[in-house]
Amino acid sequence: MTESHFINADGTVKEEILVEQQAWESGSADRHGVDPEQVDALMAEVQAKGYVVLPNILPADLMRSVKAEVLPLMEHDGRNEFEGHRTRRIYSVIEKTLALNPMLEHPLILALLDRTLLPNYLLSQLQAISVMPGEVMQPLHHDDGFYPIARPRPPYSAATIWAIDDFTEENGATMVYPESHLWGDVPPAEIDVDKMVPAVMPSGSAVFFLGTLWHSAGANHTDNARVAATAQYCEPWARQQENYSLAISRERAKLCSETVQRMLGYSMLFPFIGFVNGRDPLRLLK
Fold first, then answer.
1. Residue 79 is part of a domain; what is its CATH number?
2. Interatomic CA distance for residues 203 and 171, integer angstroms
3. What is the pLDDT along the chain (286 residues), one digit of tens a residue?
4. 1 in any annotated domain
5. How many domains does the chain have?
6. What is the pTM assigned to this prediction?
């Protein structure tokens, strides 16, 4: 039998691997130049509730320029109830615009991700979204529900939803169910939506949440669209929702930072996952 690089014969994680993981997590704040005490406090809230709102972490004028960039790209309404028949989305975003990259790799978000997922975690999907007037509440879901492993369990993904426009209760702010990340398997029909909380926040804010948290987009009861962006990240051993090796050209990937390049799949989970011709795929962008 081949010796495992990670697991002892009794099934426990090797001590050196645990030490490496602890060092990675403890160094997350310093690695991204953010306050370690702030990251500790935010992670405590995430672990307790499954989510945390991060107000005003990007300037509103940047959100206005992002909105001007993405709105012309939103041409088609959703195709089903989940996408929303009055909601417009952009997929393969990086192939079309780099406007969302500052949200994708915000230092505070990266510090939280470093405390949640293994090193070289991947971007699972990235979207710009416009929820139009009259849109109804999205079906309840948790983002890593398509990984066929019973709950309760650790999250295999984490996500951000960014307020490009202000998020209000009236215009359909994301609805979250506190502490639902701790649940076992629950049919959506049994969830009491009256106990859900709207992630009300101004433009330039984000809500960060675990892939096991039940949530949905709210109904838009106003006369104006609500524009948002979402980035979902997954463990480096998990399959991404968007197939970035096909959706994003190498030429576009070269325009991104090395952080985003690694998220797109130009990275490895030591020692063997993700290689190209036996070597680190980041070499392909040099």
1. 2.60.120.620
2. 13
3. 445 666 787 767 677 767 677 777 778 888 999 999 999 999 999 999 999 999 999 999 999 999 999 999 998 888 988 888 999 999 999 999 999 999 999 999 999 999 999 999 999 999 999 999 999 999 999 999 999 999 999 999 999 999 999 999 999 999 999 999 999 999 999 999 999 999 999 999 999 999 999 999 999 999 999 999 999 999 999 999 999 999 999 999 999 999 999 999 999 888 888 989 888 899 999 8
4. no
5. 1
6. 0.92
Domain that holds residue 88: 34-285
144 is a domain residue: yes
